[in-house]
Specification:
Number of helices: 13
Low-confidence stretches: 277-290
Structural class: alpha+beta
Mean pLDDT: 87
Distance between the termini: 68 Å
Radius of gyration: 31 Å
Helix content: 40-55%
Strand content: 5-15%
Strand order of the largest sheet: 1-2-3-4-5
Oligomer: single chain
Number of strands: 10
């Protein structure tokens, strides 16, 4: 850590140089201003700043050729000059190609999450993908975000706006563009979704689920109601975690209705709800591309909620409603009876 004091000519003139290497001192009047003194007695004003992702030492000048007040005055200008955006070199690249470059360089997520983001960008920004990135205007960007808001909702539009803003910031740093067309676009107001599930709604939903033709999807949706677990936990249920002698799922009890649903399923797979019977978009892809468990059967869910006239209901809304009705107990048998009591109200 550098030694800090108020820079005066008398003090700087009498600083003792180190035997080897260099020492660093810091100005208390302008904390960004520093000086290093080499073993040969050379005294240099400098500052440190993160520039385009790298820690850079910005040299201001040697003392006493540069006086203290001049060094303080020149500091801001030096920093501004170093941190200015890279001048666009106007290399030709399409938005689609640059988004793939941005994701590979700047996005650090799991493989599945990165693939999901890539698909979302390709689908939602499709009209802009073939265009040269330096030719894209703010009006075109606003039009895309309006379309996303209408088709996918304000939250999705805002998230995709943040991603595209990052894309263009990276493009400026890399010299592909000189201006960010996303900078002046405003975020959309997000309205909080109201969950208005009632016992009557859940009854209608249950009746609609029983009409679903796919037995795996039908059973999975029923387990969302009878299993008192989240969508992801329910869909990834494995037979090895079930004990029908004690009617348990891991350490948690199973309701009577859940046991009936599960006993009616084939047990020749690893997962209770394998993905092979669902649509390709609803499969969880494992290492090596192998199909695994049911993941996100949106089309089937849309059919169910539309039939029940509850189109605003999402899968995890059921879990939140059922657990809110459930009286918790540390005793497994008591908790099981409480689960059955909630289900019997349906």
């Amino acid at each position: 850590m550098s030694h800090q004091f108020h820079f005066y000519p008398h003090i700087l003139d009498n600083l003792v140089p180190p035997v080897v290497g260099f020492n660093v001192v810091q100005d208390s009047a302008e904390p960004r201003l520093r000086m290093y003194i080499t073993s040969r007695g050379v005294k240099t004003f400098f500052t440190r700043k993160r520039v385009h992702g790298k820690d850079v030492r910005i040299i201001i000048g040697n003392y006493p050729n540069v006086e203290i007040e001049d060094a303080r005055a020149a500091l801001s200008a030096k920093v501004a000059a170093m941190t200015a955006p890279v001048k666009a070199r106007r290399r030709k690249i399409t938005l689609g190609n640059f988004v793939h470059l941005f994701i590979s360089k700047k996005i650090h997520r799991t493989h599945a999450s990165t693939a999901k983001l890539t698909r979302a960008c390709e689908r939602l920004w499709a009209p802009l993908y073939p265009l040269w990135i330096d030719k894209i205007t703010a009006a075109q960007v606003s039009e895309i975000f309006d379309a996303i808001r209408k088709n996918s909702g304000a939250p999705t539009a805002n998230r995709m706006r943040d991603v595209m803003n990052g894309v263009f910031k990276f493009a400026i740093d890399a010299g592909y563009v000189s201006e960010n067309p996303v900078a002046d676009t405003a975020s959309f107001t997000e309205s909080r979704r109201r969950r208005s599930l009632t016992l009557g709604n859940v009854r209608r939903l249950t009746n609609s689920i029983r009409s679903e033709k796919d037995p795996i999807v039908r059973s999975a949706f029923l387990m969302l109601i009878y299993g008192f677990a989240t969508r992801s936990k329910t869909f990834s249920m494995q037979w090895r975690d079930l004990d029908f002698n004690n009617d348990t799922w891991g350490s948690a009890p199973l309701s009577d209705a859940a046991v009936v649903v599960l006993r009616g399923l084939s047990q020749n797979k690893q997962f209770v709800f394998p993905g092979q019977t669902a649509s390709r978009n609803a499969l969880r892809v494992g290492p090596g591309g192998g199909r695994r468990h049911l993941c996100d059967p949106r089309a089937a869910w849309h059919r169910v909620v539309k039939s029940a006239k509850l189109e605003d209901v999402q899968m995890n809304d059921i879990y939140k409603f059922m657990t809110k009705k459930l009286a918790w107990s540390p005793d497994r048998e008591t908790l099981r009876r409480n689960m059955n009591a909630v289900i019997n109200e349906l």
